[in-house]
């Protein structure tokens, strides 16, 4: 019987006479990783008696091939300030070993960087793909004006670079740093209401390489977005702009690749719409009526002319006022004057007589750009009322019930009757009821008093109309007229009021072992005049606390101690009292009461002696007793201690110094170790 082998033997696979397969040369996985062969059995006449039998031989790969770079020198370009982690080039290596085994799993790394400025790595490589990008430090520091060329030495290892037996190869990478063209242009100013043919070129952006696709977006939602960008990165405004509609736009520009991916972070471009003088000044009312008293003094303010200009630019909306005409011009042609810039209308002649002139009409010119070029003409009317009482002034802190003045109206009916009695009522000028008028029933005299607390910051001037009425109705055909009313002007003087806290007293409970620097609470005060409030502490006698002068936050600056004081009260200026209660924590160990120490016994001992001991603890009761007493191990033969009352019983020998351990029975155990002297 003899055996034969055929098939993919490559003249390396043989069989001997006993049917054993053997190799006369090594197989190569890279040449053929599977060999299919057939084996037959033949008799002495070479006649096949069995077979052929198919046998598949799989060749297992070994790490006998090192990785090879496809180039020995690579060249790349990186842009200044390019995004960290975004690849700008790639190195590539291959390994002939089985790609499904670690033998062909490659790992890329940077051996060195030349120059290595400031000992900082400016570049990084993806260990799996070989893609090279800048690091965050590289994004910040790469600058072609300072250093344009860098060299990296790259190594690639198989076995994923995890073994000392890894095979490797090296390559050189030369990198040139170039200026980054993808930079936002500065703010662009565009005059509103342009008459140029649109679209108008305003600015441009450029990607670092040709082929980028540009897209334009808006950072905020605008009512209209009249901008566009073309394929070259040129940006245009498509319609005239209006600064009153929007004084600024923020454009967002994207550079995208062929797959619509962002090549870099988008740019933001600020567009400022420059105001021109295209809006005339407009008075709030075409005709406004002011009241003037007969006894007004020269310089008294009558009112302020209200006018606006929609132009945004200061010089375009800066208004100037001029008094053109007064009708009638009696008894003087200049009864009024107006400040050209504040529009404050004042009395310039105090010879008002209602019987002669009861109404004046003034014509005022309002112009922008300090008088040029837009002019707006308006007319104001002033009515004259007889008034017997001079204007009054009162401090805003005047008490409720303060008498402002006395007034009196007369009635020709029989005194003492309902037709003669007068009731005074504030009919106009006081919608919140700040004033009240009481009547003296005997004399019909009226007393104008403060009814509510005044506030200069809310109302600084009141023009009151006070009506005099009978409690009984008038007879048919008789009506109240202007002689039954009077007018009273009351000015409120400002008082520098103290800041007001949102609470008159603050109280906070904290643990005494609170961390130094912790915020305990925040006090808050408001100045009625709107001034900035600053805070400071007083009566902080232990210097435990500090306060932020601007925010009012009170923080600890030292350790608190409830055993020193359990209720700590300080004063905060702008003034309020703050009370801080300290909660006890178990921070004091118990201590032995040694007032009866030492204890004296006679020696030799004739009997057992008792020593009563006590312990104290500075903490509160829930962190103190009951205590547990014990004796250290070396004294247990000479002394014993009872659990209940703490008595020591002397046994055989004399111990001169005992170490006593005392434990408090609470959750967190503190103990003390003290000596008890026995003589």
TrEMBL record:
Keyword Calcium included in the entry's annotation: yes
Pfam families linked to this entry: Cadherin
Keywords: Calcium, Cell adhesion, Cell membrane, Glycoprotein, Membrane, Repeat, Transmembrane, Transmembrane helix
Source taxon at top rank: Eukaryota
Domain Cadherin: 1-69, 70-283, 284-392, 386-501, 502-592
Main location class: membrane
Annotated localization: Cell membrane
Transmembrane segments: 654-672
Classification via InterPro entries: Cadherin (IPR039808), Cadherin-like_dom (IPR002126), Cadherin-like_sf (IPR015919), Cadherin_CS (IPR020894)
GO molecular function: beta-catenin binding; cadherin binding; calcium ion binding
Gene Ontology CC: adherens junction; catenin complex
Gene3D superfamilies linked to this entry: Cadherins
GO biological process: adherens junction organization; calcium-dependent cell-cell adhesion via plasma membrane cell adhesion molecules; cell migration; cell morphogenesis; cell-cell adhesion mediated by cadherin; cell-cell junction assembly; convergent extension involved in gastrulation; homophilic cell adhesion via plasma membrane adhesion molecules
Full protein name: Cadherin 17, LI cadherin (liver-intestine)
Species of provenance: Erpetoichthys calabaricus
Gene it is expressed from: CDH17
